[in-house]
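[#protein-structures] MJ: dropping Cobalt ABC transporter ATP-binding protein here for a structure pass
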Amino acid sequence: MIRFEDVSVTYDGAAEPTVRGIDFEVPEGELVLLAGPSGVGKSTVLGAVSGLVPHFTGGTLRGRVTVAGRDTRTHKPRELADVVGTVGQDPISHFVTDTVEDELAYGMESLGIAPDVMRRRVEETLDLLGLADLRDRPIATLSGGQQQRVAIGSVLTPHPSVLVLDEPTSALDPAAAEEVLAVLQRLVHDLGTTVLMAEHRLERVIQYADQVVLLPGPGAAPTVGPPAEVMAVSPVYPPVVALGRLAGWTPLPLTVRDARRKAGLLKQELDNAPGEGRGELRDKPQTTRTRERSAQPTPTGEVRALSVLRGRIQALSHIDLTITPGETIALMGRNGAGKSTLLNTLVGLIKPSSGTVHLGEATPHRTAPKDLVRKVGLVPQEPRDLLYADTVAAECAAADQDAGASPGTCRALVTELLPGVTDDTHPRDLSEGQRLALALAVVLTARPPLLLLDEPTRGLDYAAKARLVAVLRALAAEGHAIVLATHDVELAAEIAHRVVLLADGEVIADGPTADVVVSSPSFAPQVTKILAPRQWLTVTQVRAALQETGR
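AK: finished. structure tokens for Cobalt ABC transporter ATP-binding protein:
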């Protein structure tokens, strides 16, 4: 159905091809996963299937890509639209209508499908993706994850024979991601749809893949094969594979179920781990700031009886939250639960309908921005929303000026977080992870005691996520309080001291990470599910415990 024949793509002005030697085939009715570190060209490969590369992006494509017998060099995207449905990393940029139902119908209208067929397919897609309750909602009022589901639905309704998906679960909560992946599996198995997908969160998708295409980097040919074989040599792999590698399991398990069947001996070894190595979450670190104060430090932020009404929607209801120095809190919950609304209220972008929010003596929505940046900083779900200048140097200069910091403060942070990025680089030319790091440097220039991050690992590979975790741990050790809204259960397990679980705008759980996530089937990390009932959260914990036992 899809055939790459010795394909290379070189963008205008680039010294080297972004991808080279791409040669593989995606048979009809299979789900093939593109994997690899950030920046190796996965999005470029996907764009070559839909014709966006090179007809829209520019550059030179050498070799040949055919889809259902059509050569993408001679067929523009509109001439492939009846065969290929595409969802990119930023679905909101592709929306052309105002409401959910209209967006689901738009693609079919463009193809001239009969109205009665359109109506039936819209209803089927609303049910498939759990969107029926949102059918009349303006797209602009939806959460990022809800918008992601609408974007996926809009390409499903025309019934394309090929689906091309770039990070399709990146903005989805665990339950919604499972629903979407189940739908894709049904399309592949029951309808013979061909799916080519790139995804960094391999723990979600690896079990559904028929083949994995690993793109190792510039100049190297891809590795193609069954998932277990490719994961054995891949530089990127999910926690279940990391645990299998650590324990020496052969063949490597790809699912929690398979790993649990192999985990008996490992559980016995871990039961002999000394003292604190038995999976209990680390205590909250004693930062320099908290050691200098009493046992009850002054809160960085306090939220009392907070409610927020957005239009006719009760976004938050009676929220109580205390944030202390050196603490990392993960806000979790379904798409639309109110996580981003709470962050935006903490940073003063949304005025409470009732209740109070205090950051020290400051009330966010009543504080001037030039003063608020020294109290709290938000890295939004789309980091480019903070980036307006044409170069990294200009962004840093503006950040220094806004924060009243000495010249070079922001640039020093960028050098630490983004080694090798030059002053004249345009922010739009950075990868998702690099833009996140730049936005984080901009926010940290003012050294706010409270740092807020909205879906900070969206678009990050495992190595980039590990670097982010190291930076956030260092900030917490210095006394910064960190609140992050995330669907990434593995990130919460790695870094959070507390998890606050939201549902329909209300707090339904607030406690130590292990206590909250271990009891939640949706929000438990893979290691916890494999080694239950012990409260192991991460492969890092398991490795440390095995080292203590002398293994």
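MJ: nice. The two ends are 48 Å apart (CA to CA).
AK: one more thing. Residues 337 and 504 are 5 Å apart (CA to CA).
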